[in-house]
Automatic annotation (TrEMBL):
Organism field: Fodinibius salicampi
Organismal lineage: Bacteria, Pseudomonadati, Balneolota, Balneolia, Balneolales
Name of the protein described by the UniProt record: Alanine/ornithine racemase family PLP-dependent enzyme
Reported cofactor(s): pyridoxal 5'-phosphate
Gene3D superfamilies per UniProt: Alanine racemase
Alphabetic keyword roster: Isomerase, Pyridoxal phosphate
Length: 356
């Protein structure tokens, strides 16, 4: 049976790398855990790193985090839907917000629960996902500061999450300036400028991050060591904290070209035949995962002698050439995954998850 393995030592190594980097630059940070889909064993591994601040986009996951470590500061990292406001206040110490009506609801619910709910106001900086339009920012903050049981702890933005807009010095300097303008306008202190995510880390490593950015929300770099500028791995970090182990359930020598009239496959595609493959054979290994678990495009080969052919709903097909490695039924083939691939695997109840 296929399983996902988390390597504890590699996770700790990546955490220490990031924690040292942020401490050297007087930056606070929290771990974004939405990749883990509330998996208790993996969340415990993250909690034991000692971060003290964890972010997620699902209330059930934040509830699990609070059960594991009630002292962890939890943040709901998207504008909260109105029908879960009660749970957001109950399980999230803070939330990212862009809508006044939602903030009113959070204030009223926090009053009912005898709490003060912390908020970071997200600003639209060009990627066109969530964020208050900059022209409306002063009026927006003026109304938010009047709310009881709401504490504004920061101003923030998300970049590269929708249209691939990359962070740069100009955008992040603008974000820092907005914080200063709001503080002067309303005689308030806003502690956090939350402009940092995995995509922003290369700017920090190149000393190109404006000093005003003092808060990061990081997931992908922790679990994959990802450098989103270079589309590679950050030097000194591991890219294989998570690995997928898949089991061979059939292996045999077969023609490389299908026979019969070709229609659309279950994904709606028509197979293109390479005429050079007519009459040729190779060994094909069938693995015990498929589209139900992960899109093959999100898999990264670890073994040199395998090639992903395609998948059906619950089987993945590999071409292993002449099978010089001697693969047999029951053997395991390892893969790394990109972020979206791991997210699918973590969300699959059919894949076991273990810690080593």
């Amino acid at each position: 049976m296929a399983y996902l393995k988390l390597y504890r030592d590699k996770l700790r190594h990546n955490y220490n790398f990031l924690d040292d980097l942020f401490k050297e630059n007087d930056i606070k940070w929290g771990i974004t855990t939405k990749l883990l889909c509330g998996h208790e064993a993996f969340l415990k591994e993250v909690a034991e790193l000692g971060i003290g601040e964890m972010h997620d986009s699902r209330i059930s996951n934040l509830k699990k985090i609070k059960e594991i470590d009630p002292d962890t500061m939890t943040t709901y990292i998207k504008p909260p839907p109105k029908d879960i406001i009660e749970s957001v206040v109950k399980y999230a110490d803070a939330s990212l917000n862009t809508e006044l009506s939602t903030l009113h609801a959070l204030s009223e619910e926090a009053k009912r629960q005898d709490k003060v709910h912390k908020v970071i106001i997200m600003i639209e900086m060009g990627d066109l996902r969530e964020g208050v339009v900059r022209e409306n920012l002063i009026g927006f903050y003026e109304k938010v500061f009047k709310l009881t049981n709401i504490e504004v702890i920061g101003i923030g933005t998300n970049l590269n999450c929708m249209h691939g807009v990359m962070p740069d010095e100009d955008k992040l300097i603008q974000l820092s300036l907005y914080k200063q303008i709001i503080e002067l306008q309303f005689d308030k202190t806003i502690p956090l400028v939350s402009g940092g995510t995995t995509v922003t880390i290369p700017l920090l490593l190149r000393n190109q991050l404006p000093r005003g950015i003092n808060h990061f929300r990081v997931g992908e770099a922790l679990f994959f060591g990802k450098d989103l500028f270079a589309d590679g791995t950050i030097e000194g970090m591991h890219n294989d904290v998570l690995e997928l182990y898949t089991q061979i359930i059939e292996i045999s020598e077969k023609p490389k070209v299908p026979t019969g009239e070709l229609g659309k496959d279950p994904q709606g595609n028509t197979v293109e035949i390479d005429e050079d493959d007519y009459g040729k054979t190779s060994y094909r290994a069938i693995l015990d995962i498929g589209y139900l678990d992960i899109n093959p495009d999100h898999l990264i080969n670890v073994e040199d002698d395998v090639e992903i052919v395609d998948a059906s709903s619950d089987m993945l097909i590999l071409d292993v050439g002449d099978n010089t490695s001697g693969y047999e039924v029951g053997d395991f083939i390892r893969f790394r995954m990109n972020y979206m691939g791991a997210l699918g695997i973590m969300n699959s109840d059919y894949i076991d998850k273990i810690v080593e």
